[in-house]
Amino acid sequence: MIKHLTILLAVDDSNMSNGCLEVVSGSHEMQIPVRESDHCLEYDWVDKQTWTTVDLEAGNLLPLISF
Description:
There is one protein chain. The protein is mostly beta strands. It contains 1 helix and 4 strands, in the order ββαββ. The strands form 2 sheets. A two-stranded antiparallel ribbon has the order 1-4. Strands 2-3 form a two-stranded antiparallel sheet. The radius of gyration is 14 Å and the shape is globular. 1% of the residues are buried. The mean pLDDT is 91.
C-alpha cells in the first residue's frame, strides 16, 4: 500500500549545474538518522553516502513513491 506519492516535474532542464535532485541508492531500505532539533538528515550520514544526480529534461516527470 502506498503511503505517499510525490511527483517531480521538470519545468526546465534539471542537472548538476542548476541544482538537480540527488539520491542515495538503496536509501529506502536504510535507517536514516535525523536530527531532533530540526528534523534534517545527520551531517555524518550525508557525508558518508554516495550521491547520484537525477538529470531531467524539461517536461520529464519523476514519481517518488514512499511505502
